Amino acid sequence: MKLYPLQFEPILKERIWGGEKLKTILNKPITSKITGESWELSTVEGDVSIIANGEHKGKSLTELINDNPDEILGTEVHQQFGKQFPLLFKYLDAREDLSIQVHPNDELAKKRHNSFGKTEMWYVMQADKNSRIIVGFKENSNAEDYLENLKNKTLLSILDDVKVEEGDVFFLETGTVHAIGAGLVIAEIQQTSDITYRLYDFERVDAAGNQRELHVDLALDAINYNKVDTHKKYDRTPNQSNEVVDCPYFTTNFLPLDGEIPVDKTGNTFTAYMCVDGSFELECEDTKYQYKKGDTILIPAALKTFILNGKASILEIYIS
């Protein structure tokens, strides 16, 4: 099988809170004024990524993995997850606040939905002035206090409200109540899961005048009611992989590329690159590939050596 860096057709999602920044900032081919998400790399059922470049153009990621699991996923990832791609990569544009929501852990998600849980991280690519996120409780709480505030429409008063800027990173373990605020473009890395429990949606209605479904009962035993620290501080040393998040589900590094660096991988895991600023070139086997802000690239695990060159800010993701 010919190995090369893979790119995929974006899977674009209209959302009630979406906007047009995925086109104006990331050059995604959106046609709607309420596009909230671009799924860059996915094997979620019904939303499987299709390869957009090279010899395997038109094939699905699932098909490629089924035929070549060790070469694509890596020997250790294949051993751990079988032929399932364990992560989902997105860009999000929040023109309005997202709903306040929570994701179940692996145990609950498996029991209720036969799915992975949804541990995730956010990298803020662009932030309007005074943008903020809602993340966790201001102080340790409990189910009774949460339900009382939900009933009285005062839930926001007990949730933590954090102002954010470009380059901020937040790591959200399952059970963390959260909402992305208006005015943000986010790069999101998460487990392969589309399970979300919506707690509160600001009384919004859709074009037909209907409010979106809430999942109050399902969320009760999924929520972590303790105060959490989600903001991740990290180094920005040039031409080096600076660790940002290292958890059982993924490792994410921040790579400020300025010039040329050789890369040497083990073959144990695939690597994904999300270009969050600038542009760069990847050279392997005498072929050069060009990438820009908003591109997401999957490096098959068996593609072990290559060269990066350019001036860019890159998120490097793999499973360790």
Automatic annotation (TrEMBL):
Any one Gene Ontology molecular-function term assigned to this protein's record:
zinc ion binding
Q: What is this protein called?
A: Phosphohexomutase
Top-rank taxon of the source lineage equals: Bacteria
Obligatory cofactor(s): Zn(2+)
Organism whose genome encodes this protein:
Flavobacterium fluvii
Phosphomannose isomerase type I catalytic domain span: 8-115
Q: Which Pfam families match?
A: MPI_cupin_dom (PF21621), PMI_typeI_cat (PF20511)
- Keyword vocabulary terms for this entry: Isomerase, Metal-binding, Zinc
Q: Which residues form the Mannose-6-phosphate isomerase cupin domain?
A: 244-318
Record carries keyword Acyltransferase = no
Question: What does the record note about the cofactor?
Answer: Binds 1 zinc ion per subunit.
Q: Tell me yes or no: is Metal-binding among this UniProt entry's keywords.
A: yes
